[in-house]
Write a structure and sequence with these properties.
Radius of gyration: 22 Å
Distance between the termini: 29 Å
Oligomer: single chain
InterPro entries: AA/rel_permease1 (IPR002293), Amino_acid_permease_CS (IPR004840)
Number of helices: 21
CATH topology: Amino acid/polyamine transporter I
Protein name: Putative amino acid permease
CATH class: Mainly Alpha
Keywords: Membrane, Transmembrane, Transmembrane helix, Transport
Pfam family, one: AA_permease_2
CATH superfamily: Amino acid/polyamine transporter I
CATH architecture: Up-down Bundle
Shape: globular
Organism: Streptomyces clavuligerus
Strand order of the largest sheet: 1-2
Length: about 525
Amino acid sequence: MSERTTVRRPGIPRPRRRHRAGAEVTFDDDATLHAMGYPRKLTRRFRGFDNFAISFTIINIISGIFSAFGFGMVAGGPAILVFGWIGVSLMVLFVGAAMGEIASAYPTSGALYFSAGKLARRHRGAWSWYTGWLNFVGQIGGTAATGYAAATFIQAFVAMQWPGYTPTGQRTVLITTAILLVQALANTYTVQLVATLNRISVWWLLIGMSVIVAALALVPTRHQPASFATHFHNGTGFDCPLYAAMLGLLVTSWTFTGFDGSFHMSEETVRATVNTPKGITRAIAASAVTGLALMLALVYAIRDYSAVAGASAPPVRILVDALGTGAAKLLLLVVIGAMLFCGLANMTSNTRQIFAFARDGAMPGSRLWHSVSPRTRTPVKAVWLAAACSLLLITPAWWSHTAFTAIVSVNVVGLYLAYGAPILLRLRLGKEFRPGPWHLGRWGVPIALTAVVWIAASSVLFMLPHASPITPTTFNYAPIALAAVLAVATAWWFATARRRFQGPVSYGSPDEVAAMDLI
């Protein structure tokens, strides 16, 4: 037995529907998009696995853990790295589930800013505007940060291979530029190519993680005792161990970002009302389990704690100590590959957010950025805007690593605040919220409430000082950078935007926008 999705006019939520267990449900993706007021411009080539793959690749446990492991060794040590991973993963799963419920109701490339505009009772334009710009800044920062991390580890590999090579900030920026160029070219070509690369990336991550875990478990003749997972270490400089432990939770938060990528790809996903929320939650769950295995393998392979914690790249030092230089270099190639795949998926998600935001007239030159190539059916100009903005963000790293670190923090805070806005608005609607085919039932409100509390708490943590004594080098510039972004958005809003931007636009009735389809 099959049933067709009810189509309603934009802004009118769909009723809750129940289906017999095992019953096949057919969804008219184009009709759902038309009901929200948009014509179809993008090609639907993402299957359920492809949608899962993009968020799984952006979360990227190898990239996240290898990049943030050193901070965790200082802020809480193994106890927070292991048990903090478990606890924060659960909190992030709540965030993803709450987001998935909203994604099922509003499966558009606009994702967070679109749903914020539809869920707000008042000031819809403002809610949509701020959510969209926080999401834009977070996405740009994620693309830049991932490319920069890949460039850093590439230089670490080159230095291991050729000891005479000296990594510098200028070389890191140049390598990042080359990475962004290649990723933009890949995103320019076709959606099918990106989908294929994302499928490959899933297996690269899973097989690579398995190889690293197996090597660290089987090759070393000596491991830390089981009780080592409860070892607590405070090297932050702050006297309060609780504060250090709370900072250590950020390691997992740093890793679990970008799963809104599935949401942004919903206009290119078949059966989007179900495959999009499944992609979000499954990517988080799979990353939580596989990430815990990798975290345990690294923790128990530590030999000299002080030496590893003081190394420029602690996970690389662990690999060298446990496996030798030759094997460490091979596994470092796995890590670099994972980071490159992560950056590619980041840019894809980033591009769709730009496309959708421009489609609703919320960006300078909107007509240009939401155009779609008639040959590739991809928003090519938005791809190159994403690459250019990411390059602009990493430029300060030419002379200052501290400035770039602030941008990385803004990336995470910007994304999570953008995640929290529509979830908070969904809570405020209460029983008036009408979910799509994939919903949480009576658990929707408590899960959304937990998600909002966690987002608020983790965002505050990202703003607080991360090391003591506080100097120009250790100062956390994230509050200043985020305040600057919000100040510009606010000034722009009151100057012109509030008069012309009222939130997501409708291009007409379902029949009218259906006639505008370009595919």
